[in-house]
Amino acid sequence: MKRYLLDLAATVMQQKDDLNRLDAECGDGDFGVGMYLGFQNVRHAILESRDDDVGTLLNEAGRAILSSSGGASGPLYGTLLVEAGKAVAGKNEIDVSDLARMFENALEKIRQLGGAKVGDKTLVDALEPAAASLRASAETKIDMSRALEIAAEAARTGSESTKNLIAKHGKARYLGEQTLGHMDPGAYVVTLLFRILVDDYRPRSSPS
Description:
This protein is mainly α. It has a single domain (2-205), classed as Serine Threonine Protein Phosphatase 5, Tetratricopeptide repeat (Alpha Horseshoe), CATH 1.25.40. 69% of the residues lie in helices and 0% in strands. The chain has helices at residues 2-14, 16-26, 31-48, 54-66, 74-87, 96-114, 124-139, 144-161, 185-205. The two termini are 21 Å apart.
């Protein structure tokens, strides 16, 4: 989990300019800066952490974002990680059922905060199908590696779908139909979150 959070932070920080570009197409163009600041704090928090409790690590990462000047969207990702951590508090190993609970918790809280639903062109368009796929994988006893791959693909498909939507939340909603044809940057960050889960788990599951 430490490696994953550090890799996620590094990737988001590296993509600051790309995230700003995506946001400029359907927002005010500063999303990447906010994400950079938030995940820079995540990196510092995880490097300093001496905990091996998965829930605590996620909570520390989320609170690091919440304490940053991460713009309007920062609190959503901070909340995502904090709520995910609550589902696995006290655990130092997690399975597919745990992952499903983590992202279901996060999704529920984010919906409560912003009221967004699938089709509103937000991160929920990527997060909800990914969480649903993890629940389905848990119920059908699909192994971790494959479950993560399915979830990552669900998030990617959901993120791509936002190109065909008109924004209904945040500053982007004021642009109306101008947002058509452009991917929501928040949904794209969710695809990064799941893609890095896939990449970081794979070496552990590969034969030596």
